Amino acid sequence: MRLNFLKLVIFLTISPLLPRDALAELLDDHCPVTQIKADNGQTLLFFEHVFADGVHDLAIAYAQDSTQGLSVESQTLKRVTFGGERHACNFSNLAIARGGDWGWHLVWSSAKKPGLYYARMDGDAWVSSPVKRLSVSSIAEVALVAELGKVTINWLDMNDDKHYAAISDDEGRSWQTPQPLNK
Question: Where are the domains of the chain?
Fold first, then answer.
């Protein structure tokens, strides 16, 4: 079970869309980043960004590949979290999945306040739902799957060394109480 889970996590967090070194250079740091191919063919990035106020928070934006190299399309840069820190790499375990025809499911953990966090990002208006905290423990090995309106998030709870799953049957609007996968 653990080996298969790890294979899924690796598949979901290391995407072949853009080379990892290109992403590190683009974002000018070595904080976690994840990506997904959007319906329009562009690569959508979910990453930590330093905003004009000097605060590091999560953002979502399209990557642009031009003759000058890889860049973030600044007009598509949208803030996902608020109240980050003034130092880098506050967020980890980033995951993104397509949400029906309306936008994106986003998952992450935070060094500032341990736990597993979830938000929905509208793909047209680019506004985020209120953030839901699905776990209060330090977490690792996050996997996010969204299919036919059902969203499942699996993770390893670092406090008790058990894998948990949280399930939503309504595109992430509400969540069942997380359940351990290995008893």
Answer: 2-180
